[in-house]
Design brief:
The complex is a heterodimer of chains A (200) and B (73).
Chain A lengths: L1 H31 L8 H27 L8 H5 L8 H22 L1 H4 L1 H8 L2 H15 L6 H22 L31
Helix pairs in contact in A: 1-2, 1-7, 1-8, 4-6, 4-7, 7-8
Chain B lengths: L3 E5 L9 H5 L4 E3 L5 E3 L4 E4 L4 H10 L5 E4 L5
Antiparallel strand pairs in B: 1-4, 1-5, 2-3
Classes of the chains: A mainly alpha (200), B alpha+beta (73).
Bound molecules: iron/sulfur cluster.
The site of iron/sulfur cluster has 13 residues of chain B, from helix 1.
């Protein structure tokens, strides 16, 4: 039984890492205002949101399953307060920090409409701290860390996020103004401009 | 059921264009990529497009869309 819990705890952690990696990459894509991977823009945003929520569910399963694991002997407090646990306190503490940040990011995202765009955005920036912390947690705590396959996966996740961030910082990242439109415009496809009426 | 009215806050809108993809019947891109309705920044949503409009409101990355009062008249 405890073997199963341990496997579940590890497996869900790995899946959560992959889902959160997809989320971060799609979040950066959403920010760029481009369609991607054959998906229209709204779908990029939709998948960004859904992979974040599913990833969060996986993290909850990850946490709950390890709570009952007799080997790690975790207390509830270890999940929220970093660096106080007995079992690998540093690496586990990173997980607690990432978890706290995820709670903040998810809650402010769900309440985006009531807290306003500014607060939402400030907290959303914490993702850039959360994701690397979570990755270090995965590499440091994970008993899988010694397995070559996990190292490969972690490397792939890292390259995906690092690549997106570098692209995010490049000048052509965001489509602005006229550059949003196709350069070559087929004159036969130009629709007449709609007439704009003042409201009231 | 009378349709709802959708308002585009152009001061917030970042011309990401996802609302234009979701409501191609009601919005088109202006020359700078911003969404434009026939009536400008405020437009009536027919009942059969209400779900799509709801998605557009929820998926606008910068909260630039909101429902205002039901259509007048
Ligand atoms: S989805 Fe929002 S930001 Fe994008 S064009 Fe529509 S109103 Fe503007």
């Amino acid at each position: 039984m405890s073997e199963a819990l341990w496997a579940l705890g590890r497996g869900t952690g790995v899946v959560a890492l992959v889902l959160m990696t997809i989320t971060v990459v799609l979040g950066i894509l959403t920010r760029s205002g481009r369609p991607a991977f054959g998906m229209p823009r709204f779908a990029v945003t939709l998948v960004h949101r859904n992979s974040a929520l599913i990833g969060t569910v996986f993290i909850l399963i990850h946490i709950v399953s390890l709570l009952f694991d007799p080997y790690a002997q975790l207390n509830l407090i270890d999940y929220f307060v970093p660096f106080v646990g007995a079992y690998r306190p540093f690496w586990l503490g990173l997980g607690a920090v990432a978890f706290d940040l995820i709670i903040a990011i998810v809650v402010t995202s769900l309440l985006r409409r009531s807290i306003g765009q500014r607060a939402f955005r400030v907290v959303h920036w914490a993702t850039y701290a959360m994701w690397p912390i979570a990755l270090f947690h995965a590499i440091g705590t994970g008993t899988d860390a010694s397995s070559g396959l996990f190292i490969l996966l972690a490397l792939a996740c890292f390259s995906a996020v690092a690549g997106s961030v570098i692209w995010r910082l490049s000048t052509h990242f965001q489509l602005r103004g006229a550059t949003r439109l196709d350069r070559r415009i087929d004159p036969s496809r130009i629709a007449p401009a709609p007439e704009v009426k003042e409201i009231q | 059921m009378p349709g709802r009215t959708l308002h585009i806050d152009w001061t917030r809108c970042d011309a990401r264009g996802s609302c234009i993809e979701l409501l191609p019947e009601l919005l088109r891109r202006d020359n700078w990529g911003y969404p434009l309705a026939r009536t400008g920044s405020e437009f009536a949503v027919p009942a059969h497009l209400d779900d799509a409009a709801e998605d557009a409101v929820n998926l606008c990355p910068v909260l630039a869309l909101r429902f205002t009062a039901p259509v007048r008249g």
